[in-house]
Amino acid sequence: MSIKKEIDKRRTLAIISHPDAGKTTLTEKFLLFGGAIQTAGAVKSNKIKNSAASDFMEIEKQRGISVATSVMTFDYKSKRINLLDTPGHKDFAEDTYRTLTAVDSVIMVVDSAKGVEEQTKKLMEVCRMRKAPVSIFINKLDREGRDPFELLDELEDLLNINVRPLTWPISMGHTFKGVYNLYKKNLNLFRPNKTKVEDDILLVEDINDSVLDQKLDSDAKKLREDVELIEGVYEPFNREDYLAGDLAPVFFGSAINNFGVKELLDTITEFSPVPKGRETDTREVDVLENQFTGFVFKIHANIDPKHRNRLAFVRVCSGRFERNKFYKHVRLQREFKFTNPATFMAQDKNIVEEAFPGDVIGLYDTGNFKIGDTLTEGEEIMFKGIPSFSPEIFKLLVNTDPMKAKQLDKGIEQLTDEGVAQLFTQDYGKKKIVGTVGNLQFDVIQYRLLHEYGASCRFELLNYYKACWITCPDEDKMDEFIRYKMDNIAMDKDGNLVYFAESSWMLNKIMEDNKEIEFHFTTGFKMEN
Ligand code: G4P
User: Of 148, 203, 270, 338, whose CB has the highest number of CB atoms within 10 Å?
Assistant: First the structure.
């Protein structure tokens, strides 16, 4: 099969949601439809229920056994779907943001009783930055939720995107009857079923068809009124607007009951985008280019702690990836070949001979890869990723076992390469400051340093409010600023200068007093250059 045909077959997407909206449940139902699993309950939730490090470790342990849960590949109606998993917990939001660099479209799950929640908004902002097309699945219609029209308004207002319903619920909660497919013009009647794949679809050519009255009684009238209102208020679905990230199609259903899920999956496989190329620091790589390119968006650590090996997840952007062929690791300026590249079909991890744009491959790594690393057939390009965001919690890393200083250095270096946290150094590397978006990461880092690297440490809270990357075209001015604010200046892992502000008031004052210095709140400034 030609590369073009392989690309056309592929759909690479992520399901994202505020925790508890139903992401794991929906993922599982997709896998059931794809025949990748046979029973419900096979997909482990990666939720961290009590915000405890031990939960995280437990999950990591499970994942070590089945890293396949990071990427789930299955075939559905002649399409190959690569479904990328994202952590639900907000402390791991950066991991989710990075995963979104590797997908071509996104399904956002929203709880019908809760509507738009905090993480929903943040995730949508990242989708917008990436210009990723988004579809929305409003879940839990089997429970009493909010009025669907009200939910649509809220999605538009709070997520700042135009929406277009493609399915419509007929009642909800105890009286939930089913969903009408506005796109295909058919009706799926509700029969709760948690474990099997349902296919009970009634074709309705005309919304005035009397069969609707037979099946829905008085709800038929309400459905007709709703549909009339929808057709009057919302523009017809325009795929171009969806692909541009300007319009989100909306689906309703109940993931746990397997309801409205098939409508979503059918429509997604039909109109979600085929794999796209990506921007690099010098040019845009087209997905149809013959030469292989790809980038690392996730590193899964220590599958076997004894060997400290890791799995680097690479998204193929162009060309054909082949096993045992030498590729250039652009940052290290070295050639590598991979003897055991893995793909993730269903629950299994298999060695793969070749992979195509849109695919995600797992490469065994002994510490050569960092998030964002680029592999090519020789060309010197680096893919642009999601920038790092300013962390919110800062702690000083203190070594508590002087005999293990080297292990600690190596451990923190590698963990931050994986993107667990950001590392800043002062005093020529002697002082190490770890920055994260959540407290949970510190427990995780401490635990992993001890168990994987044999290094023990403690953290001392630093009273910083924000870290900003600083640049200045005038070197003398910059030197002067560094001398003046020495204690608040550090270096990130890439050698960029960072200023730590103690409070928002202080930051504003420093910005006001030093107009020639530019303060950046994400590493995105490197991309602008
Ligand atoms: P998440 O990955 O987005 O965090 O959510 P997850 O799928 O784990 O679902 C969160 C909870 O919502 C789960 O209940 C799940 O069973 C429930 N749920 C998912 N879809 C539906 C639905 O369509 N209707 C209803 N009524 N509930 C739904 P839980 O009690 O937290 O966990 P569990 O013990 O059921 O696994």
Answer: 338
Tell how many helices (H) and how many strands (E) occur in the chain: 15, 31
pLDDT tens string 448-494: 899 888 999 999 999 999 999 999 999 999 999 999 999 999 999 88
Q: Is ligand 1 within 6 A of the CB of residue 436?
A: no
User: Rounded to the nearest 5 degrees, what angle is found at the Cα of 466, between the Cα atoms of 400 and 522?
Assistant: 110
Ligand 1 lined by 94 (C-beta under 6 Å): no
Distance 260 CA to ligand 1 centre (A): 15
Instruction: Report CA dihedral (184, 185, 191, 193) to the nearest 10 degrees.
Output: 10
The model's pLDDT over 113-144, given as tens digits with 9 standing for 90+, comes to: 999 998 888 889 889 888 899 999 999 999 99
Where do the domains of the chain lie, and which CATH numbers do they carry?
Answer: 13-271 (3.40.50.300), 278-376 (3.40.50.300), 393-528 (3.30.70.3280)
> What is the average pLDDT value for the chain, to the nearest integer?
86
10: helix, strand or coil: strand
In the predicted structure, residue 290 carries a pLDDT above the cut 90: yes
- The percentage of the chain sitting over the pLDDT mark of 70, rounded to a whole number, equals 87
Task: Return the H-helix or E-strand segment holding 93.
Answer: helix 93-99
| Higher pLDDT, residue 528 or 377 | 377
Question: For residue 86, what are the contacts with CB-CB under 8 A and spacing of at least 6?
Answer: 14, 15, 16, 23, 95, 96, 99, 100
Determine the atom of ligand 1 nearest the C-alpha atom of 27: 7
The stretch 230-249 carries a mean pLDDT of: 94
Among protein residues, the one whose CA lies closest to atom 15 of ligand 1? 22
Ligand 1 atom at shortest distance from the alpha carbon of 253? 23
For ligand 1, say whether the CB of 19 is within 6 Å of any of its atoms: yes
Point out the ligand 1 atom lying closest to the alpha carbon of residue 25.
7
Ligand 1 pocket member 140 (CB < 6 A): yes
Among protein residues, the one with the nearest Cα to ligand 1's atom 9 is 22
